[in-house]
Amino acid sequence: MSAPLRIGIVGAGSISIRGILPHLAQPDVFDRVVMSAVMDPVPGRAQAAADKFSIPHAFEDYHALLNSDQVDAITLASPIGLHFEQGLAAIQAGKHVHFNKTITTTAEEADTLIQEADARGVKLVASPGQMLRSENQYIRKLLKEGALGRLAWATVGAAFGHYHEQESVRKGSDILSNVDPSWYFRKPGGGPLYDMTVYGLHSLTGVLGPAKRVTAMSGVAIHEREFQGRMVPCDMDDNTVMLLDFGNVLFAFVYGTIAGSVADFHFPSYFGEKGTIAGTRMNGQPLEYPGHEIAKKLGGNALLPHVKGDHMTMDEAHVFEDIMQLVDLVLDGAPTPANAEHARHVVDIFDSAYRSAETGRTVDLRTTFEPMF
To which H or E segment does residue 10 belong? Predict the structure, then answer.
């Protein structure tokens, strides 16, 4: 396929308005990718986004977008619970797909997407591409070389808090700034695991490799949340803790909770007989990974391959990077660590953790992936 890749944005909610659309509207990407369409089922929202970001086509019906001959690929910025159905329809329509985290809610769904894409020659990229980060690649190298000696355990996780209710696109009066966050708290696809812990677990498994089994406890702690004066019922688990077994007596504590943290969001902590790597520090000293001085000054996103110029200071630069990974894969055949197989393994962990919590039993993971670094 020749450049530029024509991409359709599915969903004009928070991640699109704050991140995807502003990044892809920058002229420096036009030789590689152009936004040809945007779709959102909320009446008027897609057209408002199209007008603001100069996108030629706006749709309220998803299948109308898929039927358009102006779209080569899509990025799914819709609620996670819709990703399987929408992803499958896109693959069957011959569209390449970028999945914003998380790819699906079950490993079986991810199996189907991967199989269908392989059969049809469709390319898939799945966020979050945590192993594109120099610090994670460097930590994996250090651990393989024995910098911490015999590894004992690791930890990573995230807490929901009230982040989503307080995002900038929630409190306005126009259609692009009053986006309802209710889906984050509902089944299927809500909860902090799929939405937030997914970052750290991609880092953890990218560095250590695939896990083998999981034990978990989980439940709903907050049954209602307030948004714009109304109460939103919450039925998706929002307080989950799990133990992962990586084999060879190496374990990890992973969590997605309503509050609290023992690790730095998407940076795991690793503990071994010779010390600790916590975030980007080893035994209390900063890691001198490639580009660490730039990251200290401009933030870690500044080291991502496509995050240059104005993109460095824009929101959600890591999402833009993952979309550009799809662009490179389709146009150049460039392999990426942000692949569907890694994403499927992370989903397998989450899905298995919920089953473990329901049954009180340890669940063996059935998926794996091959780390790139």
Answer: strand 5-10
